[in-house]
Amino acid sequence: MAKDLVVPLAPNVWRIPLVRDLVNGFALRDDDGQVTLVDMGISRSGPKVLAALAAIGSSPSDVTRLVLTHAHPDHAGGAAHVARATGRGFTVHHDDAAYASEGTSPPRDRSFLLGRLFDRMARPGRDFEPVVVEREMTDGEVLPIAGGVRVVHTPGHSPGHVSLLHEETRILITGDAIFNVLGLRWPVKAFCTDFRMTQQTAHVLGELDYDLAAFTHGAELRSRPREAIRRFLLSHPAR
């Protein structure tokens, strides 16, 4: 297994570093060999996702599910490439489904100048290549992935942003609710649809049970991650 292409998190669960540790996707494999891929990185990350698939001994034909935590170009940029290779559509939360289908980022937080500028530049199909959404997920449902992945709707970064809890291995994928880049931190304010809501909904991550926190931006936390996230949330309350 090429360790630079994947980072094992638990049996049959891997982090895929797509831009070093700064942008990550994930792979989960069922006991029968079916593979689910979560987040596809930036526009040039598609081939890297497929290389990671080969590194874990699987092929595009083994992929039965593609999931996006949200419809931003650093997560959906490589999505169309992976969809063509696997012949699969995407599972996206209902509130981000239309954006993924159009290749357009959701609105940015217009209380910030940079957010207003990003909104002015947004054009359908130009943020990332549109993808086919074949399934819309909802808060609290358990996706039939590797023993069960619970959907935790954490809107604010985008309307349909989700975190994912793999209950069997007790791994939490935070999505962009919280970054782990030079320590725990909030996502960039202007990249959020509603930054204050991002802060508010992230507090649910301190109430879940997990033994490892995996981030779409930054390396995982393996030692007492729930306590670390709780400390962060207490010291960085919504304002």
Task: Give structural notes.
The protein has 239 residues and is α/β, with parallel strands linked by helices. It has a single domain, classed as 4-Layer Sandwich (Metallo-beta-lactamase, Chain A). 24% of the residues lie in helices and 24% in strands. It contains 7 helices and 14 strands. The chain has helices at 46-55, 73-76, 79-86, 94-102, 113-121, 195-201, 225-235; strands at residues 7-10, 13-19, 23-29, 35-38, 63-67, 90-93, 133-137, 142-143, 149-153, 162-166, 171-173, 179-180, 184-185, 212-214. The strands form 3 sheets. A 7-stranded mixed β-sheet has the order 1-2-3-4-5-6-7. The protein has a 5-stranded mixed β-sheet with strand order 8-9-10-11-14, with no helix packed on it. Helix 1 (46-55) packs across helix 3 (79-86). The chain is globular and about 45 Å long. The termini are far apart.
Topology:
Blueprint: E1 7-10, E2 13-19, E3 23-29, E4 35-38, H1 46-55, E5 63-67, H2 73-76, H3 79-86, E6 90-93, H4 94-102, H5 113-121, E7 133-137, E8 142-143, E9 149-153, E10 162-166, E11 171-173, E12 179-180, E13 184-185, H6 195-201, E14 212-214, H7 225-235
Parallel strand pairs: 4-5, 5-6, 6-7, 11-14
Antiparallel strand pairs: 1-2, 2-3, 3-4, 8-9, 9-10, 10-11, 12-13
Helix pairs in contact: 1-3
Protein name: Metallo-beta-lactamase domain-containing protein
Organism: Terrabacter lapilli
Pfam families: Lactamase_B
